[in-house]
Structures are given as structure tokens and as C-alpha cells.
Amino acid sequence: MTEPPRPSRPAISCVVPAFNEAANLAPLLTGLTAQLAVLSERWEIIVIDDGSVDATPATIAPWLSRPGVRYVRLSRNFGKEAALTAGIDRADGEVVLLMDADLQHPASLVPEMLAAWVRGADMVCAARASRADETWAKRLGTAIFYALVNRNAAVPIPVDAGDFRLMDRKVVDALKSLPERNRFMKGLYAWVGFRNEIIPYVPAERHAGTTSFSMRRLARLAFTGVTAFTNAPLRLWSGVGVLIALGAIGLGFWFIFEYFVFGNNVPGWATLVTSVMFFSGVQLLSIGILGEYVGRIFDEVKQRPVYVVGSEAGRGAISGMTAGMTAAMAAAPTAAAMAAPGKPPA
Ligand code: UDP
Ligand code: MG
């Protein structure tokens, strides 16, 4: 089945999760609105304020007086995966672009990503070309995580491809149809399938502020990823159980042999104590892993929403926008900003 050719200037929705990004939003929106206006007449930027406690709402306010920027404030901090979900749920575009608010994802890469979509790719991921900027601990953790997941998951999750990606409408609809609450987005993108294309890029430094992902938070996210995409940790204990049982049979034979050949010498309490300790450790660990899965099952059956919206403002420019208006917006915040009051600051 052949698809009709894709429009070279589709309606673009750009989803930007933001948690305490007051210092980054103005430069981000200035660059991004200019870039999007060059690429299409119909576009929107949906900023998802993930319960920021800084001046993020005030920073965004001047941008909402004209079409283009939409603002969704979640009722508290739900985490980046939930914020992305909230944005994806609202995006109206034929293509949806996901982008961080801290200017680490260069808007200058968007034309190349869009060109790949026009050529027929359903999902275009920008994959970081290097991890030289990360600490060795983070790189090691990442390597272990992908090795563990990709050895066992039914669908491999591409290494180095993060949340900076452009998706076709049908990919977005597929993502929206996944009901799970423990949302490990990188796994979900891979799970839905479709034609992928990867574009390497070098992430910029964070413009202002610090990362919200501590090692602890990353470890938690990795655990969600592992438990959501493989049952390997559960299966591991069956393997360990079989090994231990085989060892016990071998040991039994040894004891019989010892009894008949050397006579009944003094039984070793050291062996007893160490083996009791070792096996209680193994049991606690396996119960703990079971508990992790049970906890996640409990999260799913509770059927709570992934996020709660506190307020929404602004409107997109996906329909009813003329080329002239977009051209004026591309020039913002110079000519267009001066023409009308309440325009975003330069
Ligand atoms: N973010 C979010 N909610 C959170 C943490 C982060 O929406 O609880 C956003 C953040 O504002 C940024 C993006 O997710 O736009 C990536 O976060 P960050 O730069 O802290 O992570 P890193 O780039 O270090 O992975
Ligand atoms: Mg960042």
C-alpha cells in the first residue's frame, strides 16, 4: 500500500515539558517560533509546566496573547514522562515534535528532522552523537541499563535516542492508545514501531539552571524502564533457584560419600550459618523484585490519570492562520512585537 506524498509544510505541534525553566523559556520560544514559522504556516508550541515553583508562569504570560504558544499547567510536578504525555494528548499537528526547554535540543536541527519525515520516516529521533559531557557514573549506568533491557525486551530500545524527536500523527495516535500509567517514554516509542530514522546531533550545554535528573531519579526511571519492558528480573530467580537446587543435590551426594568413606566427622556449623545467611539474602532479594512488579501492577489497577491539569491558556496556530501572520511572527519580537502591546520581550 502506498501512502499519498507528504506535505512539505505540515501542521507542526511542538511539545515542550518545562520544570523550573523561567530563565530558558524566553530564549527557547524566541528561537523556536522563528524556526517553526519558517517551516510551516500552521504550528503551535505547547509548553507543559510540570508544577514549576519559579517564575515560569510569569515568563510565559506575554507569549499567550497571540496564537502560537499554548500553556498547560499541571497541578503539581508529575515528572517529565507525564508532562510529555499531557503535551502529546493535546497536540493537533500532523507532526509532533518533542523538545526539552533548556535549549539542549537545538531548534536548528528541526528542518533536517522534518525533511526526513517528508521523505517518509514516521519517527525521526535525534540521537546524541557523544556522551562526553556526562559523568562516568551516568555513562556506566546508561550502559548497564540498555544492556539489561535490550538483551531481554521484545523490542530493542535504541541507545542514545532521547526525547528529542519528531513523530507522524499515526505514531502519536498509537502512543495515545497505550493506557499504562508507568510511562517509560523511550520504551513506548520503540514499542509502537513504525519507520524510524535517526539523526545524530551534539546536545548543547543546558542554557540556565541545573538538571532535574539526579542519579537517584535516573535510577528510578531506569527501574521503571526495566520492569515495564522485561520480565527478566523475575525469571532470573527461577534460574538461581535451579542452580541452587542442583548445588544442594551435589552437596547431598558429597555428604553421603563423606559419611561412608571418612566416617561421620564433626558437622560444620560455619557451612550452616553461611548458607542460611546466603539463602535468606537471596530470598529477600527475590521477594523485593516481586514486590516491585506487584507495586507496579497496583499502580496500573488503580487507574489514576497520568497527570492532572491545573490550568490551560493560549491557543495554537494550526488552523485559520494566514501566511502573512506567520511571517510577521517569524520576525518577532521585532516588528510584530512593537506593533501590538503585550508582546513577548526580546
Ligand atoms: N522536566 C519536566 N519535569 C520534571 C523534570 C524535568 O518537565 O520533573 C523537563 C525539564 O524542564 C526539561 C526536560 O524535562 O525541559 C529535561 O530535563 P533536564 O534538562 O533536567 O534533564 P536532562 O537534560 O539532564 O536529561
Ligand atoms: Mg537538560
Strand and helix map with partners:
Blueprint: E1 12-18, H1 22-39, E2 43-49, H2 56-60, E3 69-74, H3 80-90, E4 95-98, H4 110-118, E5 123-128, H5 136-152, E6 161-168, H6 169-176, H7 185-192, E7 196-201, H8 215-229, H9 232-262, H10 269-302, E8 309-314, H11 323-331, H12 335-339
Parallel strand pairs: 1-2, 1-4, 2-3, 5-7
Antiparallel strand pairs: 3-8, 4-6, 5-6
Helix pairs in contact: 1-11, 5-8
Bound molecules: uridine-5'-diphosphate (UDP) and magnesium ion.
Highlighted features:
12 helices; alpha/beta; 2 domains; 8 strands; binds magnesium ion; single chain; binds uridine-5'-diphosphate; elongated; Spore Coat Polysaccharide Biosynthesis Protein SpsA, Chain A; eight-stranded mixed sheet; 346 residues
